[in-house]
Amino acid sequence: MTVRATVEATIVAVAGEHAKALPPLTDDLPLLDSGLDSLCLAVIVARLEDGLGVDPFSTSEEAVLPVTVGEFVKLYEDAAH
Amino acid sequence: MPGDGGICLSALLRANGAPASRRFVADETTRVDLAALGLDAPHLPATGPNRIEEARGKSVLLALPGQLATAMALIALDGVARRLVLCPPDVPETHMPAVLQSAAVDMVVTEWPLAGRGAAGPRERQATEWVLFTSGTTGQPKMVSHTLQSLAGHLRATSAPSAGDTPLWCTFYDIRRYGGLQILLRALVAGGSLVLSCAGEPPAAFLARAAAAGATHFLGTPSHWRRALMTDAAHLIAPSYVRLSGEVADQMILDRLRATYPGARIVHAFAATEAGLAFEVDDGLAGFPASLIGSGGLHADIDVRDGALLVRSARAAAGYLDGTVTRIAAADGFVDTGDIVVRHADRYHFAGRRDGTVNVGGQKVHPEEVEAVINRHPGVRMSLVRARSNPITGAIVVADIVVFGDATAPRPAGAASLQDDVRAFCRAHLARHKVPASIRIVPNLDIAASGKLARARA
What we know:
The complex is a heterodimer. Chain A is mostly helical. Chain A has one domain (3-80): Orthogonal Bundle (Non-ribosomal Peptide Synthetase Peptidyl Carrier Protein, Chain A). Chain A is built from 4 helices and no strands. Chain A has helices spanning 3-17, 38-52, 56-59, 69-80. The longest helix of chain A is centred in the N-terminal third of the chain and has 15 residues, at 3-17. Chain B folds into 2 domains: 9-344, 3-Layer(aba) Sandwich (Rossmann fold); 358-441, ANL, C-terminal domain (GMP Synthetase, Chain A, domain 3, 2-Layer Sandwich), CATH 3.30.300.30. Chain B is 23% helix and 28% strand. Chain B is built from 12 helices and 25 strands. In chain B, the strands form 5 sheets. Chain B has an 8-stranded mixed sheet with strand order 2-1-9-8-10-11-12-13, sandwiched between helices. In chain B, strands 5-3-4-6-7-17-18 form a 7-stranded mixed sheet. In chain B, α6 (148-158) crosses α7 (178-189) and α9 packs across α10 (251-260). The radius of gyration of chain B is 24 Å and the shape is globular. The chains are: A mainly alpha, B alpha/beta.
């Protein structure tokens, strides 16, 4: 499973667990204000830390937080390489 | 305000409120001119029973639907009521009978405006006790007894605005809790205006509204800020002052705020409902300098004993309200915050709560409560719930479980994994912020010499 597929599957799974309706995932979809709330995102990050073994938020030097799904996926792709 | 019954919120507002300054408090739908509120003249429709006069000498529960209405009721009733109980919106209904009894409530205000005159004349004023709730814990919510002096005395002493300096405050906090109330009082007492958030308002919409109003001073928890920085609306505002409190500010959020708002003064503060504001840090680094110990500044004494942070100041609460007022401070005046701090070189860093409470984006979780639910699952022998640091909510709950039988044995075809099953079980029995984000099957859990689960403590 690619990093992208893992990230997207985790987003969909957590949204389902939290009964959040999610539009189809596209790269320019905003992470928040599109169905996911902070708690969902926190769970997604924790789940990905288990699944991918990385926490790009704690290791990234970049001083910007991801706004869109595409930026979020890229953060994990960069960290996994 | 003991011995100072002549001062009340409306009087302070009047003393500060140059009518020309056009100061206001606003939410999504309503904007209230503060100059009009500070006047002795009736500012409310005087039809029907005089509800403000009815509140005289009473213990009044403020259970209004919004923050703005609550702020207006506070201004009108401080100095009139004997006691004002500020009820946050998330206190469960099942707790209300205990609240009404503990605070001897004899009037409940649920709507605004109240008919009646505005503030009472100086001779008719009385010192009103302000009662706040500690942030969500299990069991009965704790009520904490303050006065306008303990809540706002330091704001009058230290924050007098210079001429022409009328900050426009904007807060993600709810003013019905300590952190948010501090901002309301700052705006009312020390000068400026205030933009309030509304229930259910998306962060991007709130930031856009604050930007349109020209807000300059922004306050929230680290979780509020992480959320704000994850929306494009973060770039709509250009704050001159950014303040974080209510949770531990880590280096990541401080760095990202610095990068996003290079022109802002970025401050993280430590305050608790019981202990009051203890200190502020503005050097851009997480934790606080060890030099604060013994000389806290901001008129507070700071100490570290047995690894925990202690605070002594005139801003401490009088005590817990449980029928009578139970003193919180020790004999020497210090309040034990229950926050564990660890020293690295010349700096202290926060390392969790002594009682193990996990703070998930401002909502508290007791690990024992979650363990009790997990342990009821038929497949689980025992469990350990703890905090894992999280870049979005500061911390999140995770669980280690020991299962009956062979954890590696194949599950029936089509069955969910045991972890998924335990998680679903937790979701059915716990608030969503208490459900473990990650569940790990471990061969065993350590038992301490006391016979209790060994919990890693700082």
